[in-house]
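Budget justification, computational time. The allocation requested in the original proposal was used primarily to generate structure tokens for proteins on the priority list. As evidence of use, we reproduce two of the resulting records. The first is shown immediately below.
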Amino acid sequence: MFYSLGRMVRQMRRRKEIGVAVLLGIIVISIMGNTLTFYFFDRVERPEITIWDGLWFSIVSITTIGYGDISSSTLGGRVGTAFFIVLVGLATFTTAIGMAVDWIADSRQKERTGMGKSGLRGHLMIINFPGESRVRAVIKEYRDDVHHGSAEVVIVSDKLLELPFHVDDVSFIRGDPLDEETHERANIARAGQAIILSPSHEDPRSDSLVASIAFVMNNMNPEIDIVAECLDLKHAALFNVSPRVNLVYTLQLANNLLVQEAQDPGVSIVTQAITSNQIEGTLSTTYVESIPTEAKPYVSVAKQLLDSGINLVGVVRDRTAKVSFDGIDLAEGDGLVYVAKTRHSWEALRGLLS
């Protein structure tokens, strides 16, 4: 049944494409036919007429503009205009205009309802729509970073009929996030990053759904960087599909912060500052690409960076956080997590350490 329906849709599209090609062909024949008859007959009485005058006369006539600056004065030229322009050209041209208007309206309707196809590159994909306020907050926070201020965003969800808000450069693809066809329409092959939100903080099955989506996306584009929301630490093993899939334990972070603030008032204020792109001085990560020949202890690295206004707060090694630097040395592949006004490349940090 679905195969037959799909074949019927493809046949309709093919017929429509053929119809458009035929109309364009008739319009071209009408213009060229009128151009040649006008030039052939009217040039006898007016030798100054050129083939370009005939082409101009044909175009302004078939588009119903009719400036009146030039017209046919011979019987043959007028018969040619009556046949090529009035009988054939105008009907074909207005039909083509109508089809163009329908195509534009259809494209806008598909874009509004998420049934279109994205042609973006390097965009951010946001998967699932747990709520308007949350999705808008994620987009705003992402774009508040100086490197992503003009980032284009594609929202993918099967729970919406159309996007409930309008934000510049934010588009919508409606479909099942587990379906490869949905991600193809979102142009995952050209996407730069993806954020997979948990569809519900109350549903214990949310982690398995998010993990399955991450697997599908990584399989389709192994180069895309994915940040997935995980509600329960016990489900972390579900996401071991690629080192490019990173987890954020949203509920645990919120609970930890509540307890920390209760024990040490003021922690939440600083945490908000260093985790937000809206405030100067945020958390950033730079990965070590190459190291000096001699071992360099992290105690020394932290001191040198601090002298340059970069506060090293932790090191990520083998997906494990190290916040105490005693006894560990700089190693290739380490992720340096620091607080600074701007994000620095490894070349820049290495220059500060040399």
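The second record produced under the same allocation is shown here.
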Amino acid sequence: MQKQISLEINGKNLLPPVSNTEAQSTGQRILLDWVAFTLPYGSDIFAVLRIPATDWGSIPSRVLGYTQMFTYGEMRVYTSDREDMGVHCELSGSACRAYEFFLDGGWIDLIKRVRESSGHFSRIDLAIDDFDGLFKLNEIREKVQNGEVVSLFRRGRILKEYSLGFEDNLGETIYFGSTQSRIRIRMYDKAIEHLIKDQNSRESDAIMKESSDKVPRKLRQELKQCREEMYRQERLNCHQDWIRTEIQGRDERAESIANHIISDLEIGGIVFGILKHYLNFVDKNLNDSNKSRWEVSVFWRKFLGEVEKIKLTTAKQKRTIKQIKDWIIRQVAPSLALLSLDKAFRIDLEEICQIILFAKNRLTKRHYQMVLNT
């Protein structure tokens, strides 16, 4: 029986995500973690994304050779007067989560709309999360260092950050393939990454509160040192199973992934095929000099077997007012701060209140239901 697959939304949640039944989820899941596509010049990309053009902020840009950038949270759209540049959209990992969570984004429908608009995908990343602890990063590292890897990639890279003063756990990332490869694979401890992001957020909140309370400078330094030690102990004691394996697909590989998604097949099949084709961890056999004949490690066979059964999912958690508040602080607030500094478009608190009052006319029954449930 296929395991319940779920989609984590709240960036501060350090536990495995919950399923549609609110039960704690284990197992594995596959989700889109980066989507980039380009439409022909003059295309209405906002209609394709189903986000009104009036909801996007606009600033000049030199990114990727484009001259204008439109932003909606962490979503990015780039335009230019050059017809050969087209109109480009990039959804990072957090933007993908926001697209699913706040806009009821359906990937199959979006990909079909891109196709209908004669667009093409330049990058699609797939993230495979394992919550069962089928393997640990140190196992992967040892396999790499011992040469117990059969791969089409010529090189791998292990990136680990260290604290020079104390024992710590700052996480590590293991890469397979180069930055120019059409397929690249990386593995890292997602639980530690989330914990560090949460700690950074908590530290920012603590600093703001101390500033507001006018805490003396010496006491602030002492409190900061206490918090840093607390954060370090949290990292050292983080034993949650959450290893992420990411497949980065570019150009024709991204197009192939998009084709599989709209065919509504179990995307686990293509993930299984990519991993098995490009990367296998094996057990050393001293009696056989041909590494390709070595036995594939049990943990890798089990992991691939679980992955093969998974379909791409965007199962959503129940929305809460707190999640929306967190999202505004993380993604909208920087844009508001930028507008407050710009001489031409400077806005004040009164204008912000007017924007909020105007937006109330666009609230739906779903929005009011969220308020009633708090």
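A brief technical remark on that second record: Residues 1-16, 18-24 have pLDDT under 50 and may be disordered.
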